[in-house]
Amino acid sequence: MVILDLTIANVSIPHVAGNLGITLEQGAWIITSYAVAEAICVPLTGWIAGRFGSVRTFLFSMVGFGICSFLCGISVTLGMLVASRIGQGIFGAFLMPMSQTLLLSVFPPEKRNMAMGLWAVTLLMGPALGPMIGGYLTENYSWHWIFLINIPVAILCIVVGFSLLRPIETERQILPIDFVGLALLILWVGCLQLVLDLGRNHDWFADPMIVALSIASCVGFVVFVIWELGEDHPIVDLRVLRHRGFSVALTVLSLAFAGYFAGFVIVPQWQQAWLGFPATAAGLSSSFSAMGGLITAPLVAYLMSRHDPRLLVSGGVAWIAAMALLRTTWTTDSDFWTLSLPQFVQGLGVTFMMLPLMTLTLNTVDENEVASAAGLQSFMRTIATAVATSITLSYWGDTQRLARSDAVAVLQPEAAQASLAGLGFPPDQVRQVLSNMVDLEATTMALIHTFWATTAILIFAACLIWLAPRPAKTGGMPIGH
Fold this sequence. Notes:
Elements: H1 4-7, H2 13-20, H3 24-27, H4 29-41, H5 45-52, H6 54-73, H7 78-106, H8 112-140, H9 145-148, H10 150-164, H11 179-198, H12 208-230, H13 244-274, H14 279-304, H15 309-326, H16 336-363, H17 370-411, H18 413-422, H19 427-464
Helix pairs in contact: 4-7, 4-11, 4-17, 5-6, 5-17, 6-7, 6-10, 7-17, 8-14, 8-16, 11-12, 13-14, 13-15, 13-16, 13-17, 13-19, 14-16, 15-16, 15-19, 17-19, 18-19
Keywords: Cell membrane, Membrane, Transmembrane, Transmembrane helix, Transport
Domain Major facilitator superfamily (MFS) profile: 1-473
GO cellular component, one term: plasma membrane
């Protein structure tokens, strides 16, 4: 539910903007507000869980997320919708790491790998299914339902959680509040997320606002790290980074998730804008990745107890890189199944990447650091998603402009104009047809270049995992206390 909300609203912004009487640029704040709030709050998970208890944090966050979803669904102004989305981001930030931590507490050691496998699949299904569900609900009902659909799910989770999770509540630790660390966190993460969300539309560092936000984020980050490492009760426990296995696995997770997510950013847009796919068809094509992950999750859980997880991670990331490389063969004539099959085959390898990586990150920290480690893990996935979205779209757009010049040279416009004119096309229509042909080829060439870059990043990540120490054991995962 939380992962779906990261992407489900993307395809609905034009409908929301039209209904509320706002511009598309104003409508983009529906996405930005959620992303900024979530990015700021995710690192606080360990501190919040320690102060209030893991189960209380999870249930209270679910209640808050459900209420804010309802407020989003009944919003009649942009201000009300953005405020409600901020609330969704705040409460949703704690749900993902808390669900991960509580799963480790509920399942016995021999079944935790399987539980984490299913958890990882749900994590990967969000980016794949979000646009399709959002497009379907918006086209067939109204944009309000992309938020109201959360309410019955939230109610079910609250009832089940209240009934079953109370026996595993963790002890509360009443610690001083690190107000300075909290303020610095809000400063640097908030500015960074704004740079990533707004930079592409403001010509990046040509805009003084983006420059100012970037400087504030960098300075805030440096001061934040220095302060938190010297604080006795930090708001974000950065000391978990002292574990080499955690640091390496977290870096690989960020790179691999960014490379994996890049495809979800540009492929649906290319399919809809240039190949004429409906929103539901483009979303269905992306969802094949999640289908592949469902198939291999039990196998990965079985192999993890018998093999070095670094080998599974390296193989899984290399497999995703191979699928990115396969996409460089796509053309403007590729049909639905040609585009969907690599998505499915990619999904077969994604769980080999995600599940062992989560095991490596959480197995290398102390038991009382699991909640903090899970929070940092979710935070890095959030930032990796934001960075991948921003950089991928910018790189794709810049490469399109370069590819257009190459396409014009290959097309030989004079000969093409003469050929179309000979078929009876009027001059204005000839120019429009040629322009569309050039734009289509340029966009496709830029897509291919983007996947070449993605392949290189993924190959680097597949090699980097070997810097992590070999785990002492490959069995169950630790439980946070």
